[in-house]
Amino acid sequence: MKKVLSLFAAAAILSTSAYAIGGASGAKIDWYVQGKLGAVNLNPYGYSPLTAVIMNGGYELSDIEVTIVPKENGQIIKYQVDSQRAKTYGGIPVFGLYPNYQNTVKVSYTKKINDKVEKVVDEIYKITTSGVNMTPSGSAMQRGVPFESVKVLKVEPEFANRLYLVNNAPGKIAAHSSKSVWNNPVGGAMEWDESSNAFIIDTKGEIRWYFDADKLMDWNNIYNRGIMMGFHQNTDGAFSFSFGQRYAKYDLMGKEVFNRQLPLNYIDASHAVDNMQNGHYLLRVASAHALRPDGKSVRTVRDVIVEVDEHGNVVDDWKLFEILDPYRSNVIKALDQGAVCLNVDASKAGQTISDEELAKLDSSDKFGDIAGTGVGRNWAHVNSVDYDPTDDSIIISSRHQSAIIKIGRDKKVKWILGAHKGWNDKFKAALLQPVDSKGKKIVCDDEYSKCPGYENSEGGFDFTWTQHTGWRIDSKSDKRYIYISAFDNGDARGIEQPAFSTDKYSRAVVYKIDQKNMTVEQVWEYGKERGNEWYSPVTSLTEYYKDTDSIVTYSATAGMAFDLSAGKAIGEPKPEIDEFKWGSKTPSVQIQFTGTGIGYQAMPVSLEKAFK
């Protein structure tokens, strides 16, 4: 009994000692508090290290304005926060902190407790951050994290407050990525799970945010790793994207809205996530199990669109291998095998594939991420999807068909924006006829695969080749007329390889489609005049933004070039952001990166959507 009592006494002493050295705070806050609210909670959700929350201190907050005081000659970040967001975050959300720096943050707000109300103006907080902590890919092309240098070549005053989210895929991480492939059945593209990053820069070239992808990924779990792609800012301000076998949505503060595994009927989400107007999502995926006409079971490659509702339930899907022709080979035979999306192999630069090789491949059991024909191979390579609410249709960009295609809910093709060559009789009525600005028919050679660039008032015409981001410009489109923006990468232009690789060029382009008369007019282009220095063989983006009536383009692999005779890379990517006022061919913004590795996409960020 004495022994038990002595144990209780010892516990009491330990308890008293614990309170003496800290213990529970009691009815007070013992964190360091700088102002009239609570403490600063840096990186509150663990995914956005350059954010913080100034905790509300128990007050109800309203009329909130946040200012990140810039460095000398830097860009000011100022935004308002509504009271609902303040309740969500438990205080004032702070976004846009400089890395590895003691930031000065000014906040104004009204605080209320019981019946007492106080207005506080320009209260100062000091918030110190660490440096940018991203795991490099190991590629020699990536010489900095996330880049080696950035050159701000031009920013006109009306774009001075722009912030751009940049999403790059610098390369494979040794010992982490590309370790697994699908089986039972074979096919698909699981091994396509390289490193990726997402960060935001201002118009001074300073990093103001990044997403902690290292925390998101579990490289030992095939269902929780992959290339982050398809970033889009939703109307609620959060960003949706996909990676490998998942699709997710996080806000700028790093708060998870959802992070879901794909429905089990589908695999390999990449490239595109479209937030539909009804709150559903269109995901570019592949089929987990498809039966080929020859009876073989395979997993497909980048050729399925699935619609999921806000709860993750499947609403519909578009199996493109059933809707389109997976044996149309004209473009695939002309592709430069040295650069097929992120599959870059300099030893194959300039090489193409023949009918005989395609036939041999099709009779084999080689399936997966292979540029070839037939179900189970990369015959389509769909890299974007968009929704047209006026007729309940989807618009896809198929890189390996060099076509932007509209398909209805009934799975019928409505139109095809692409060269006419090689499409079978089933699709010929859907092929759009090029016209000039006066509606005059433009005639192209070789079954409309070689358009001579008729010089009309809008600058000529050409189709897109191995393009990305075939997106509807919603605010300029209606039920009859639809404007499409796209990045025309330009490989296999005219369904051939040029005599010299330096003759290749890329374009940002906008088309106007008359869906009643089945015609297409090219209304704007940029890039041809830049020639090979702006040529991006893979990736990239062109997108319209209503807030500034402007076109944003990201030539994400500009300058990546190959020595065809030696079969090696001789130029590395220098991704470039350009933004144009509508109709202008002179950029208002021009920002160039070096040492990034391969770029993917970039886009403006709206703080109004994010916080108000």
Give the overall pLDDT as a whole number: 93
Number of helical runs?
8
Radius of gyration equals: 27 Å
Number of strands: 40
Shape, per Cα inertia axes: globular
| Poorly predicted runs of 5 or more residues | 1-5, 7-20, 454-459
Largest sheet: 5 strands, antiparallel
Strand order of the largest sheet: 8-39-38-35-34
Span from first to last CA? 66 Å
Instruction: Assess the beta-strand content as a share of residues.
Output: 35-45%
Percent in helix: under 10%
Give an account of the 3D structure.
- The structure is a single chain.
- The chain is mainly beta and 612 residues long.
- It is 9% helix and 37% strand.
- It is built from eight helices and 40 strands.
- It is globular and about 80 Å long.
- Mean pLDDT is 93; it is low at 1-5, 7-20 and 454-459.
Output the keywords.
single chain, globular, 612 residues, mainly beta
Write the layout of secondary structure elements.
Layout: H1 2-20, E1 40-42, E2 51-55, E3 60-68, E4 77-81, H2 83-89, E5 91-95, E6 102-113, E7 116-128, E8 149-155, E9 163-171, E10 195-202, E11 207-210, H3 213-216, E12 229-233, E13 239-243, E14 246-250, E15 256-261, E16 266-267, E17 273-275, E18 281-287, E19 290-291, E20 297-298, E21 304-308, E22 314-319, H4 320-323, H5 330-334, E23 339-340, E24 343-344, H6 355-362, E25 382-388, E26 393-398, E27 403-408, E28 413-418, E29 433-435, H7 445-448, E30 468-472, E31 481-488, E32 507-514, E33 519-526, E34 541-545, E35 550-555, E36 561-563, E37 568-571, E38 576-581, E39 589-594, E40 599-604, H8 607-611
Parallel strand pairs: 29-33
Antiparallel strand pairs: 1-2, 2-5, 3-4, 3-6, 6-7, 8-39, 9-10, 9-40, 10-11, 12-13, 13-14, 14-15, 16-18, 17-18, 18-21, 19-20, 21-22, 23-24, 25-26, 26-27, 27-28, 30-31, 31-32, 32-33, 34-35, 35-38, 36-37, 38-39
